[in-house]
Amino acid sequence: MSRLPLPFVVPDASQFARSLGQSLKTRQAERTAEPPGHVELLNLIARALGHRNFQAMQASRTLPELPTAAEDLPPPLPLSDNARKALMQFDSRGRLLRWPNKFSVQKLAMWVLWTLFDSQKVYSEREVNEILKAANAFGDHVTLRRELINHQLLTRKSDCSEYRKLPARPDDEVRALIGAWRALRRTRQLRTAAPVAH
Q1: 41 within 8 A of 20, measured Cβ to Cβ
Q2: 121-163, pLDDT tens digit by residue?
Q3: What is the pLDDT at residue 6?
């Protein structure tokens, strides 16, 4: 196996240690007491982080987004009136500023928040709350979490111990909004990254 740096974050060290320990106990009960080889150990670590195996973990790593030149950006999809209203609910950092009054605008805003979750990951309620706290400026992550469930964009176990992003298909209106929202954030990132001329 070639050398490949693969940084990863352990969101909950205690959960990671429990999961890895359980995998090692199961392995020991099923086989000899010999320690795992390096490939098997990589797979055990990947599974403890919620991946199918080490290859799936490698495939899931996200590369840093490089700034895109304006001429390389795809032409934006036209925004409907509702999508324009939904976009106005977000600040330049991409945070939802207020809970929209109109249901159709609320629904579009939920799609934007849906993009913040990884479809391959199982989230705890605390992790969902942290994402939604960072994604809004009005301090009501509970409403956002409930509405993501109501709009069938997230699902959860009945005891609220696990949350998952549902595989949904955004329509053209939603895709246009998500593209405009990402462009808004990218513009801000480019402005803050640009050196200041004196």
Answers
A1: no
A2: 999 999 999 999 999 999 999 999 999 999 999 999 999 999 9
A3: 66
Q: Are 124 and 163 in contact (CB under 8 A)?
A: yes
State the number of CA atoms in the 13 A half-sphere of 47 facing the CB. Answer: 15
SS3 state of residue 119 = coil
* Torsion from C-alpha of 109, 110, 115, 121, nearest 10 degrees: 160
Q: What b/e readout covers 101-119, taking b as 16+ CB neighbours within 10 angstroms?
A: eeeebbbbbbbbbbeebee
Show contacts of 29-34: CB within 8 Å, 24+ apart.
Answer: none
Give per-residue pLDDT as tens, 27-84: 777 766 677 777 887 777 877 777 777 777 776 665 445 555 554 555 556 899 999 9
pTM above 0.70, yes or no: no
Report H helices in the chain. 13-30, 38-48, 54-60, 81-87, 103-114, 125-134, 141-150, 172-193
Cβ proximity of 102 and 62 under 8 Å: no
